[in-house]
Design brief:
single chain; Zinc Finger, Delta Prime, domain 3; alpha/beta; 2 domains; elongated; 16 helices
């Protein structure tokens, strides 16, 4: 995960600002991966304390930051808690004390998007006029709950979704997993390593895949009852990602058929099949490809993107899911 984070543009930008001695006093790291947000914050926090030309000193500090025991790098809130007014008060008190080892003290806060309005306002004055040597590194999975006054006082560092290739490589480094399984989990993750990890570790992938296929194979009459059952899942993002894969693969098969792509040699397989992510479900994908019109398959990606957007803004998942599928089915009836 560290290698992936260090390859991002935001990491390079912050590192360059540190090397050029022009660090800002406040940064907001936007990273839509709740599982790995703290890991990212720690990796970015190390940049503030990297001592050029003294790798041994830096290594000691980095180990302390990973353990959250470095005296000049303080983490808030406590594990399992949300940032509170009390946390903001503690930071205010700590900021008045001089750094222990150097000339910089860093306060790391994650996930600031979950902080109450009162807690954000309590920290606002300190963000506006911090004592000399005091810096802030705030984390957030989304920005809409963060007050505009906070956003205007922090430099934004955003880590966009990773590519399927990047997530796959990361999974292969972290787990004993086959290349084909890693590729599948990566493709279903929506570019989020944490989601890919949840899929890999959760043991629910087969059941979720079955639900996704059932949704893709449904009709307008069965849709409400199906959504009522499937919409209660805890794995909302993963389900939408699987639907995206299903419609993507079905579109590949549809366009190959329209373009007259023939079966390949002795195997009898369509040459387009090598591009499918869900190869083990090829027959079901063929049936879905035959069931949907081209326009419906093309519009599916847009409908799913809109559903994902609504979920990020706290939309009711079953409702968003039903509207999404209804739009796709409506396109199929035209």
């Amino acid at each position: 995960m560290r290698r992936l984070l260090q390859s991002t543009r935001s990491y390079a930008l912050l590192k360059a600002e540190k090397e050029e001695n022009r660090l800002n006093h406040a940064y907001l790291l936007i990273f839509d991966d709740a599982r790995n947000l703290k890991t990212a914050l720690k990796e970015f926090a190390k940049i503030f304390f990297n001592e050029e030309g003294n790798p041994f000193a830096s290594e000691r500090i980095f180990e302390l930051i990973d353990a959250e025991t470095f005296s000049d790098c303080l983490f808030f809130p406590a594990e399992g808690k949300k940032f509170s007014v009390e946390d903001a008060e503690k930071i205010t008190e700590e900021s008045a004390l001089k750094p222990v080892e150097g000339n910089r003290k860093l306060f790391v806060v994650g996930d600031f998007a979950e902080a109450t309005v009162q807690a954000q306002n309590k920290l606002l004055k300190l963000l506006e006029e911090p004592p000399a040597g005091v810096c802030f590194l705030l984390g957030a999975t989304v920005t809409f709950p963060v007050l505009p006054t906070v956003l205007s006082r922090a430099e934004k560092l955003e880590i966009p979704a990773f590519s399927v290739k990047e997530v796959k490589a990361c999974l292969e480094r972290m787990y004993s997993v086959s290349a084909s399984d890693a590729a599948l989990y990566a493709a279903a993750s929506g570019g989020c390593v944490g989601e890919a990890q949840n899929i890999l570790e959760g043991g629910y992938y087969k059941a979720l895949t079955a639900d996704a296929f059932e949704l893709a194979e449904t009709d307008p009459f069965r849709l409400p009852a199906l959504v009522k059952r499937v919409g209660e899942t805890k794995y909302k993002k993963e389900l939408l990602s699987l639907l995206r894969l299903i419609f993507r693969d079905a579109l590949i098969l549809k366009t190959s058929k329209i373009n007259g792509v023939s079966d390949s040699g002795k195997t009898g397989k369509n040459r387009a099949e090598k591009y499918l992510m869900l190869k083990s479900e090829t027959e079901r994908l063929r049936a879905i490809s035959d069931y949907y019109r081209l326009n419906a398959l093309l519009s599916a990606q847009e409908a799913l993107s809109e559903a994902e957007k609504q979920i990020r803004f706290n939309g009711v998942f079953p409702q968003c899911l039903e509207i999404c599928m209804a739009k796709i089915l409506e396109q199929n009836d035209r």
